[in-house]
Amino acid sequence: MVSLPQQDDNLLPSSEENEPNLLRQQERVRSTSSESIKAVAIYEVIKGVGALIGAGALWSWHTNLDHWLTMATASWQQRFGQLLEPQVESAVQIAQHASKNWPVFLLLIVVYASLRFVEAYGLWEDKTWAYWFGVLGYVIFIPIEVYYLIVSPFDWFKLGILVLNILIVIVVYRNMKRKGLI
Description:
globular, single chain, mainly alpha
């Protein structure tokens, strides 16, 4: 009598049996955002909330903004001295221009915050368009940041922003590559 070979249960299943598991794993990689992308999304929400706080301040104080700016600058200098002085002066100049055309600036700030929230939603929900929007949105500003870092006196704050933006581009790019988007 011919004996049939026995099946060894320790052997791996054939590729046909393993294919559904592989497809599920690939789909899971494509359909869930990583923790690093969720961190970028949270950063975008923080930027959006910060912009809305600025919009609220502009809305509330636009009639007496020079007084508030003088008080805030004096308070900053009293507590922190010259720390971030170029950024404080730049913010004061922008706010003074904003007080003259406050409805336009208010609209621009709200549009900016809305874009941050839309991008954060897209990244959190793992939308392809959000990856492209994020990476392109950060890459555009890197040459400008490098330029200002070179032509102006050295500033740790500007360097920190540049490094943070480069890290975000790397994180988003690596996730795009992992998902097969590029």
